[in-house]
Amino acid sequence: MISYEGKSKSRRSKFDEKCATPDEAKKNIILKKVTAGGISRESKFDYLFKLLLIGDSGVGKSSLLLSFTSDVFDDLSPTIGVDFKVKHVTVGGKKLKLAIWDTAGQERFRTLTSSYYRGAQGIIMVYDVTRRETFTNLSDIWAKEIDLYSTNQDCIKMLVGNKVDKDSERTVSKKEGIDFAREYGCLFIECSAKTRVNVEQCFEELVLKILETPSLLAEGSSGVKKNIFKQKPPESDASTSSCC
Ligand SMILES: Nc1nc2c(ncn2[C@@H]2O[C@H](COP(=O)(O)OP(=O)(O)OP(=O)(O)O)[C@@H](O)[C@H]2O)c(=O)[nH]1
């Protein structure tokens, strides 16, 4: 089991609701990073890991994140650009700070979200077991995005089939998920953000695998000065940040 010292923020600020375009979303990201930078200075940890959630719109990425960090399930509106949460956990005797980035699945944000693959030690690819196209898009879109944009050669990938609480509506079998994961060298789990089945296990297995990968530990060590919260948003410029 993971033990928590949870720190999380509610997913939708009033600012979120007003963001309708990728440009507005960029400004939103900058604001959120400033807030997260404050949190990072408060806590001690052995490793800081950057995790990324990707997959089609509506598969439940934000719901998984909210379920994991806040034990809450809600009917969420689509993510605008990129969102993130911080979670402190202890796994394998190590104190970990997880910065979990939740990307919008909608295609119009793809250029914006692609830069967030940089430096991620773990990438969670999510599909909806009741919507087959979200599974076929894994190979058509998401695996290609990882190949293009992930900068960590040893980055651990986790395939997640979400919404197993709707088993009667399932259009993707568990075996298909296992086969895909084997072919693409991913970990695999089926879960439900709604019932919380396997939600903790998903993050725990991913993080344990990262801990077993020495090259990723060098990247994620708290001794490394690189601050992943200060990652520049794509195409960010002075005018954007000064607007904020
Ligand atoms: N039944 C069920 N519904 C879920 C589950 N996870 C998410 N949902 C619902 O699916 C819808 C989409 O969930 P989101 O978490 O917003 O999906 P997303 O992948 O973040 O979507 P984008 O932000 O557009 O990329 C919401 O109505 C959720 O309530 C689940 O495990 N079971």
Which geometry do the CA atoms define?
globular
Between the first and last Cα atoms, what is the distance in angstroms?
40 Å
CATH superfamily: P-loop containing nucleotide triphosphate hydrolases
Q: Helix/strand-derived class? A: alpha/beta
From the alpha-carbon coordinates, what is the Rg to the nearest angstrom?
17 Å
Read across the widest sheet, the strand sequence of neighbours is 1-3-4-2-5-6-7
Largest sheet: 7 strands, mixed
Helix-strand sequence = EHHEHEEHEHEHEHHH
Heteromolecules bound = guanosine-5'-triphosphate
Main location: membrane
Organism: Forsythia ovata
Pfam families: Ras
Protein name: Ras-related protein RABC1
Question: What does this protein structure show overall?
Answer:
The protein has 9 helices and 7 strands; from the N terminus they run E-H-H-E-H-E-E-H-E-H-E-H-E-H-H-H. The longest helix has 19 residues. With 244 residues, it is an alpha/beta fold. It is globular, with a radius of gyration of 17 Å. The chain has a 7-stranded mixed beta sheet, with helices on both faces. The structure holds guanosine-5'-triphosphate. The site of guanosine-5'-triphosphate has 21 residues, from helix 3.
Supply database-style keywords.
Small_GTPase; disordered C terminus; membrane; about 20% strand; GTP binding; alpha/beta; prenylation; disordered N terminus; binds guanosine-5'-triphosphate; protein transport
Briefly characterize the structure.
This protein has 244 residues and is α/β, with parallel strands linked by helices. The protein has a single domain, classed as Rossmann fold (3-Layer(aba) Sandwich).
